[in-house]
Structures are given as structure tokens and as C-alpha cells.
From TrEMBL:
It comes from Friedmanniella luteola. Residues 50-248 form the Aminoglycoside phosphotransferase domain. SUPFAM superfamilies: Protein kinase-like (PK-like). The lineage of its organism: Bacteria, Bacillati, Actinomycetota, Actinomycetes, Propionibacteriales. Pfam families: APH. It comes from the Bacteria. One of its GO terms (molecular function) is kinase activity. This is Ser/Thr protein kinase RdoA involved in Cpx stress response, MazF antagonist. Gene3D superfamilies: 3.90.1200.10.
Amino acid sequence: MTDPTTPWPPLRLDDLAREAVRAALGPGARVDEVAVLQSTPESAVLRLAVHGAAGPLVLKLAATSAGPALDLGRTAAVMRRAAAAGVPVPAVLAADASGRLDGVQHLLQEHVPGRPWREVRPLLDDAAVRAVHAAVAAVLAALSTVRPAGFGELDGDGEVRPVPLAEALRRRVALRTRRPAARALAERLVAEHPDRLGAGPPVLSHDDLHHQNVLVDPASARLVAVLDWDKAWAGPAASDRARVRFWDDMTGPGPETDPEPAGDDDVHRLHQLLWCLEHAFPTARHRADTARLLRSFDLPVPADLG
């Protein structure tokens, strides 16, 4: 396995790519080129040129030790459920979280041509921007039609073992919020504000909807794919609505782009703050957003967070 402190060596990534493609497409499949899009001590994302294929493929790799927070079998199952509901996602060709591929999780999917919404937004006129806003709203509406059996984390088949929403969020904080001070604040937030966790039935929640995970075709202003389903869970619809509203001009200025407008902005702020506490981006904007949201709930702003 890999050194726990450094990204995976390129030669190992090449070997894993070839093994994954042969396993999915047959022993005669040949990888002509491997481009490393991302590599960390626990995971990597590769773009592959496969001989004779109609277009590039994308291979996601992860150490088995990255579970349960990262389970690429679960990711694939969730993508299939989202696709069945009408959400545009890359087609999954193969996935496994058990480590059959040389002890590594993998997910092989088709590459979708397009550019992140963050990059495309400044290029479009007002009418095209409104079209993308409507497409994002349609994604939220489609996800709200997927009704898991209850709230909670999804297993490798995309199914849930239901628990009450407050308990589901408490477990989610324990799983994903690693910094002790941030985790303590998130746990306090969930415990002290049970009326602001979200109403309505459980739905399929992407939980990482932001500019970079929405691909748009610049020429047609068409939303072509929603990416990165690794954090998906069975949550309240307010969770994803809060995320998309948090990103500047991603979904428009008001609730007209929201398929299910929430009556209480405090619900959105709570889910936005849980997201802020989970992550530790070293930017002034992230620190300012975190501090502002903490103050809105009369919570302290630790020096290392705000």
C-alpha cells in the first residue's frame, strides 16, 4: 500500500489504472494514457485514454482504510439511484470497495465533457444563467423524489439503516468533522437546535453541491453532470438547499429557483454552519463565513476557526 504521508506514486497509479480497465472492459483493453487529476495519501482521481474507446474514462481510487467515510461502492450505488431519478451523472462502468483491485477501492466511470459552473458562470448572459439556475433547481427536485427508508448513512448498496434525524446528524458529525473544536461545536449545534434540523421526509442528499461539482456545457448553457457523490446520505431536503444557496449566484437571488422553499432561514444557516465546521479551508472567506454563522447561533468563535 501507499506511504501514509505522500500521494500515490505515478507508476503505481498507472498499474492500477490498467488493472481496473482490464477488469471492467476485458483482458484486451489497453490504456494509452494516464493523467493524474488529483492525488492524496488516501485517494486519487485519474483521467484515462483507452484504446478504441469513444472518449476518456475517469478512475477514482481510494485506500480501503478511507472507509467508512469514503466508500466507492456506495458512491456508485448512489449515482445509479440519482440517474434513475433523472439527475445527470457520469455512467458507472465498474466499482468495488472491498479492495479486490490490489487492495484498493475503485470506481470507473465515463468522462463527461463540460466545465465547472464556477468557470462558466462569468461567460454567460442573463438568460443562460437563469437556464442553469433552473437546471440546478431541477436536480434538487429530482433528488427529493428519491425516498430512502429513513434518515442516516447509506451502505454499499445505497440503502439506509434508519435513525432519527438528530442522531443521523450526530453520527455524521462524528464521521466527517475531524477537528476536535469544530466537532464539539457541531455536536452542540445539533443538540441545542432540534427544531432547526429540517422538516419533511428523508431524501437522497448529495451533501457537496457546489460550483466545482456541477458541470456545464459553455456553448449550450446546459447542465451536463453532477459530480462527486462520495458524501451522499439520506437527509432532509434542506441540507442540499442550504449548500447551493451558500455559493454566490449558483442558484439565483431568491426562492423562485428553489423547488421547495424553506420557511425558516435558520434551518439553512444550521446546515451551512455544519458544512463550515466540517471543512478547514485556509481562506479569509471561509473563516468569515464560519464566524458569521457561529455568531448567528450565539456560539463562540474559536481563534482557529474564525
